[in-house]
Amino acid sequence: MHGVRVGDVVDGGTYVDVAGRPIWHFVDGEPSGPPTVLLHGAFASAATWGAQIPDFLGGGLRLYVPERSGHGHSPDGPEPFTYESMADELIAYLDGVVGGPAHLVGWSDGSVVALLVAYRRPDLVNRMVVFGQFYNQAGREADEFSELLRRRDPHTVDVLRADYATNSPDGADHFDVVLDKELALIARAPDYDLRGLSGITAPTLVVQGDHDVVRLEHSVELVRNLPAGRLAVLPGTHILPVEAPELFNPLVLSFLALDPPRRWLP
């Protein structure tokens, strides 16, 4: 098996117990700063936040950067990937590791998980920033990467496998299992009725790239269904935080610090 134990320190992060499972996470920042959890997407890890972490730490946040099961340094489990189980894992992490409510910043799949947790456990969420994600199939824009994945393009799979093997305690051969589970998830989900998200009360900033995998109309509809939702459209694509951190980072920090005015006053 994976051979990792709770308390092991690897690559600057530590394994912690989350609902009986070892999950790798990185923690840094002001101990008294607002707890802020960064949630990565599919085939990703804490490393994808490399262009954000220095600025966010400079903004006085207490950062928690976990890698969910089957990603990065965190070992996989036997069950299929579902957004509901990812939300369960994050709830256990917030309750047991963070120890209370936090800001959530979700990228791609991490955005779905953030919204589900805010819906199910509003007591655990202060503010949210979500981006790079559709929430039902009507919101999806056709993109080359998803098509390459669907066809299991050999070059694309090899690149993802090499990145996975760099950190995973399960070994390179287990990537085929993770790939199968990710493709099964992508084929059927997410598929949420945006009207059902109207119960989310946490102030939420939805960030949309102007050439994203998400239809702009979908993000507009999402914000209209969030009672405290705001929308920002920035130049970029699905990897907006990497392409334009000079735009993205201060936007996130300012939203987490202070809710902008809701209407223009002359």
From TrEMBL:
GO molecular function: hydrolase activity
Pfam families assigned to the protein according to its UniProt record, in alphabetical order: Abhydrolase_6
InterPro entries named in the record: AB_hydrolase_1, AB_hydrolase_fold
Protein origin, superkingdom: Bacteria
Residue ranges of domain AB hydrolase-1 in the record: 37-249
The keyword Iron is annotated on this UniProt entry: no
Keyword terms, alphabetized: Hydrolase
Protein name as it appears in the record: Putative hydrolase
Origin species: Gordonia soli NBRC 108243
